[in-house]
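Thought: the user wants the 3D structure for the chain below. I'll pass the sequence to the structure tool as-is, report back what it returns, then summarize two notable features.
Action: structure_tool
Action Input:
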Amino acid sequence: MDEKELWEKCASFHGHECGGLTIGYKASLYAIRLLGLEAEKEKAGKGCFSADEELVCICENDACGVDAIQVILGCSIGKGNLLFHMTGKQAFSFYSRKTGKAVRLVLKPRPEGMTKAESFQYYQASRPEEMFEVKEAKLTLPEPARIFKSIPCSRCGESTAEHMIHLQGDEMLCPDCYQAYNRFAV
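Observation:
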């Protein structure tokens, strides 16, 4: 699939074309190059770079660009290889479990005073090297996703992953039913 077809696939998944989607699109293509993942796509199959959790992305925002990362790299919340570390920054850390390589891409500021349309055109015309600062990934690679036993909540009866259960008195409670102890309630 060429870059134009890949862009169209991202826009179709996202629902429209925009500067934010372009940011994730360019970050994904840059990560492929920086981590040397070109050969991995064929091995992973089904047209993505991560059939399981070989590639991990930690996004520091939940904006439009994350959709392009899902489409291009095959990272997803359900597979456990798309995670969020919410800082509000247009920054993405990519990790290859196979090679041990990691990179953090941080969006550089764009010229001020642009309209939405001008911003879109600016990002579309920019090369990834112009858009992102390449930094060392500062977060450690998370462990692979685990499957947890389900425990019924003592109050609501809904099954809850065991690592989310809280013990309160003799009850095992889900996060919704558990009332945290806080002496400094606001």
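Final Answer: Structure generated. The beta strands are 55-59, 82-84, 91-96, 102-107, 132-135, 150-152, 159-161, 166-168, 171-173. The CA atoms of residues 109 and 131 lie 8 Å apart.
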